[in-house]
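Researcher: Please translate sequence to structure tokens.
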Amino acid sequence: MTIDKSLVKLHFDRHAHEYDRYADVQPEMAARLAAQVREHASRMADPVRRILEIGCGTGGLTSMLASAFPDASIVAMDIAARMIETARRKPQLSALESLGRLSFVEGDAETIAAQWSGPPAPHGEQSGFDLIVSNAAFQWFQSPFATARAYARMLAEGGMLAFSTFGPGTFRQLRESFAEAERRLGLPPVPHGQSFAGRSEWEACFAGMDGEFRWENAIRTLVYPDVRSFLRRIQGIGAGNASPGGSRGVGGRLRIETMECIYAETYSAPGGRGVEVDYDIGYGTFVRHKRNGMIG
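Model: Translation complete:
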């Protein structure tokens, strides 16, 4: 499904001021990514000196990386200027920027990848990033696989690309409720929201590259008071539908009201506490091979 980058930027700019209040699973994802890169760094022969963060948002993961690697310099990029402004206002990050340890780059990570990427540094040379990290950003790319490969080529020997993203089971209850609503109403089925890549697609992405790729995923089920509360929280972090014409596909009061009834009937939480929502969270790591040493 095509992603409209102007909508991505618009949504995240508009909701930057409330992102931290409404983000439900993203902080958890960031913490797991930070743990993964810390564990990897503990096995590296050389200290981490250069870190690139893709889609830094309001700086939650940026702060974790800065604390975990106090001697490293960090480049943090995001497509939304107001996300960066929000991150800059956090005291720790403001101090790091003033010390020259942290620099922010505003722009589209896919465009930047095309500008920065070149042939991998020859084995034995130390150019490139030791860590490239991205939390919940790759699903917003028009060409996520080509972009991931481009960033993987920017790694130094032994360096790691670690990212989290959403898998195909994300919001399955919502999609299934819309499908049943359309069946009952005799309406043609239309896409509702984005489609997400899974393990096999990400494994194929890194096949043949000079390194090792690993994938893990976990289903995280959250409970919201009702369907509209869930949708409002998604919109509150700027993660609204960024597919051209997507809102028209969901449109129609009767379609939505029928979907809500089906959702509440079918996916109510135990004890009538609300409705369940699945997040299918994927964690991918690619480690560039190192000659005459560790990697894997």
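Researcher: Any highlights?
Model: The first strand starts at residue 50 and ends at 54.
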